[in-house]
Amino acid sequence: MRALVAAAVAVLALAGCAAPYDDDGELATVGALAGGAAPDEDATPIVVDTDLAGDDLVALAYLLRRSDVRVVAVTIAGTGLVGCDPGADLVADLVHALGEGWVPVACGREDPARQWPREWRATAAVAPGLPRVDTTFVPASDPAPLSIAKLAGSTDDLHVVALGPLTNLADLAERWPESYRRLAGIHTMAGAVSVPSIDGVAEWNAAADPAAFAAVLAGPVPVTVVPDDPIPAGTPDLLAAFPVVGPIVAATEVPKRWDLATAAAFVEPGLATVDRGAWEVDDSGRLSRTGPGRVAVVDSLDPAGLEAAYDEAFSG
């Protein structure tokens, strides 16, 4: 998911409504759920860095629904399953289906170290279950790493919830290191500790850009990693009852809800236990603990607590 995209800004019309521009003249897209609570005054500001697979869409909806976090931008990890095209359109279609509000969207470069399976990419690109709008959304002109850098410089306590490969964050650290250091934390779904590899891959978010993951693990910003291992198997039945996310969940059959569980663990850290240390990652996405350190790798999640968190967000 990484190829720095400097897209021109264009007007987006959703359901016949012209989209407004921000103070810089850049177009922002809808980003709040209908009927959801407005963010609290002290809500934690977050950037959602995502590759917009079906599970990412549900996780993004979950984070938009929470009143204790405020999504200030969505950045597209182009080294993942879905790049800027059609990723920007998927964000616009998701938030249009959910309701009204505004959040900037920016894109990152698209040159993964390991190519994702073509069938997975094709399925993710059409976003089964997501209502589609026949418009084209062109994102902000700044590439994703620069967009995050600017936000880090102007937003206190900014966190990144990363649901795809970590290329945008590694690029930010390399090009704008002072802005990178201003991030309050990175919470990422990536890597695997002991689950079996399949066709040489332990976990795809990490394997698509292991160098980026390694750079983030070794960097100065606090990192919490949610690997494949503790994610509960299956899909909670309660998700089927909720508008918008229910059809997406039904249409994207996956063995685990990796990104949704990761998002809930960010908002409610008490649902997780962690193993802190120094960690490294190999080209397959396999994590290994190498000694003492401050990187937190989640080693267990509370399945009942996760379901309660989903229910609170989507039914509230």
From TrEMBL:
GO cellular component term of the entry, any: cytosol
Annotated SUPFAM superfamilies: Nucleoside hydrolase
Molecular function terms from GO? purine nucleosidase activity
The GO biological-process annotations, alphabetized, read as: purine nucleoside catabolic process
What protein name does the entry list?
Answer: Inosine-uridine nucleoside N-ribohydrolase
Cross-referenced Pfam families, in alphabetical order? IU_nuc_hydro (PF01156)
Asked if the record carries the keyword Signal, the reply is yes
Keywords for the protein's UniProt record, in alphabetical order: Glycosidase, Hydrolase, Signal
Tell whether Translocase is among the UniProt keywords: no
Which residue range or ranges hold the Inosine/uridine-preferring nucleoside hydrolase domain? Answer: 46-241
Signal sequence, start to end: 1-18
